[in-house]
Amino acid sequence: MSSSVRPASSEFLSRLTAIVGADNAIADPAEQAPYLSEWRDLYMGRTPLIVKPASTEEVSQVLALANAEGVGVVPQGGNTGLVGGQIPRETGNDIVLSLKRMRRIRDIDPAGTSMTVEAGLTLGEVQEAARKAGRLFPLGLASEGSATIGGNLATNAGGHQVLAYGATRSLVYGIEAVLADGSVWDGLRALKKDNTGYDLRDLFIGSEGTLGVITAATLKLFPEPDERTTAFVALPSVDALLPFFQLAERRAGATLTAFEFMCDLIVSFVVRHIPGTRRPLADDAPWFVLIELSGAEGSTSALMERLLGEASQAGLVTDAVVAQSLTQAEALWKIREAASEAQKGEGGSIKHDISVPIARVPELLVKGGEAVQRVCPGARSVPFGHFGDGNVHYNISQPPGMARADYLALWDAMAHAVHDVTVSLGGSISAEHGIGRLKVAELARVKSPVEIELMRRVKTALDPKGILNPGKLLAP
Amino acid sequence: MSSSVRPASSEFLSRLTAIVGADNAIADPAEQAPYLSEWRDLYMGRTPLIVKPASTEEVSQVLALANAEGVGVVPQGGNTGLVGGQIPRETGNDIVLSLKRMRRIRDIDPAGTSMTVEAGLTLGEVQEAARKAGRLFPLGLASEGSATIGGNLATNAGGHQVLAYGATRSLVYGIEAVLADGSVWDGLRALKKDNTGYDLRDLFIGSEGTLGVITAATLKLFPEPDERTTAFVALPSVDALLPFFQLAERRAGATLTAFEFMCDLIVSFVVRHIPGTRRPLADDAPWFVLIELSGAEGSTSALMERLLGEASQAGLVTDAVVAQSLTQAEALWKIREAASEAQKGEGGSIKHDISVPIARVPELLVKGGEAVQRVCPGARSVPFGHFGDGNVHYNISQPPGMARADYLALWDAMAHAVHDVTVSLGGSISAEHGIGRLKVAELARVKSPVEIELMRRVKTALDPKGILNPGKLLAP
Asked: Which residues partner with A230 through β-bridges?
């Protein structure tokens, strides 16, 4: 598909510049730099021009022109993606379409059930707007200060509230998207139920900018829970994870809003490298869980006490601390949220964002650890993540003393090994980060030919010239 | 698209018969009859052959052959659809593919998180299998004894538990579908999170058999709540509906599992025509709500008492009865569930399945009533439905004494009037029943050309010869 994508002519670049205005078209390499690399330093792209349209109409004009010329377009939000989907290819032929100037809150429903926002607002700004309206937009990510809601939609972002509220897909009533030829699909609706034809909304969400550019969305808002109770819990073994989760689910039902797990070693990394953190419990344990209940006033702390008491009696929990204040709760969350950053202090790390059916997480942890040792003896597996979603960030820090570059050269071999275990357990090689560039080859390796062919047909139907985010998600 | 669809040759019919076996190929008109009409008697189809494959492999062979011949195929489950999607056209050229022999429960996850079932099981059987495994499959419909899970998936069925658990789409991890050319897409996964490419699952769900034939699904199972508390509540005016719902949502959060509303007249119809029913409250009121809370043991009845007390003090509720036993709860539900059937006793009825943003339901009820009177003075609007989903079954019984046929001749004019009000409020002309044949023209009338074109492109990409359920959902 992308074979037809061509380099940009200087006349084309001038016309693009005229659409968005000279101040919003960046050709200078120094100014371009922050848009062309990402925080893991895995990719460094090149582009003749970054354009920053201010409206859906300008996005439409940019795409119509690019489509007519057959030039590739890479949509970009806050540039926080972890798989390189937002970075243009090194060919330097693709233009970058930054949505960061589309920042309007178009509407908040008077009853507080929905809010229509443009793609370039950060997730943090969206959360804040909901809060000011007395409501909750529950999507939450470590990168929420920079990540845009448009990027969250394009990647179907996950985060730590998925257990109770679902991923981004579940938090959206409708979207507005500009198609490859510049036509605008107004799918902005605020309907809980709508069975009028194909589910186009969910086709665009998670398509990583390869089927259309999402310019706005009508988001679901929720009542803010009266209170939250957070606990940090020690477990005696990997085998206690599933029964403890199931007990929590049975007792707490929909008030169970987080069930995050960490191995002991990642907690050690956090305490060692992240200032202001300390171990919440006195003794070591092989596994820890951060559990949160949210609900009506006066309901969650008593429920937490009962749950932990029952779990302790059943031998599923060896120690626990319940936060007595918001500050204490934040300190517990900090340990979980700093896990990825803490790895930087331990040298190179190879990371996987995988999921399996929840009952198979313990098996994944055991078999994954064995596979890692076969690829690199001494490498340190530090799995953590969203147990309640079956989503494991299967990260692996290098053996102490090994050269960083030598370790990172094992990335593909390690990914194969971990993904093979994942697939053998019925799992996914990308639970929440997407495919981008990082996993294009792995996707082609693990998916059935029928599924790849289906995706290709959809891609060709919606973007016949292959101009949208070329080289991402589907192999050319 | 469907212009290329051809009549079936006798050789083709013989080969189809050979695939499924002579006992499972129905050519006799008398035997065919139950498959060719539906319970509202709106459509009476014709077909040369009904085939009943027993396996995905047989479905694959049937479709490969039909695609090669260019013959239309109409998938059918329990034949309970309300928009004619499951009935072949009167041309008599399309074959019917009944999924009712595909009845295996393929797998129940040992941790009880998922269950993989074939398309031909009834929803009631699926619910029962979940119950036997100590879990809950929450989809619930009046027609659950006959409707198949495959039909529920093809139409993204709604029902009365959507408020807490979502429509069918939300209750499915993955599906298996046979494509137009007979290739089989194995999308059966049991993953809460999976961001590996386009959301093909949700493209097939709700596509009413026009993109592929769903043969199996991996369903989400939930913990059965310890208890439910059900109440039947009288409201003083249409303006009390929204604030009462919002109060319930705020106080009960995720334990609010049903919020169904009925106008006074439909309650009268039920009590008059459905044996064994009686008014739950002594006095009349303009509106009634059936409210249900589900949760941990001992939590819901106290919460209901507090909620009703607060609502009463705020003047939102004038009377209420709380069920003291399962039998009493069932009697309250019976009134709601018999609403549609009760209309039969009042002559002809014209029905609409519409939704609007929840804050606009009261406006819909007022403006809808006015529009109805303009089309047919004296017609009796009896709206009821899933208030918490913004989903109104805007049904209208004929004026007393009018000839039934004269009234039903107004169907299109009435539908235009009600749908115009709905669309003006940002609503949908099919909240949960789909498009089928009944609303093909209305869909083309109310959707944007961009959206229709997008759907057409997807249809052509996946079913290039247009053999799948021709004439349904999209106008030829």
From this structure: A292
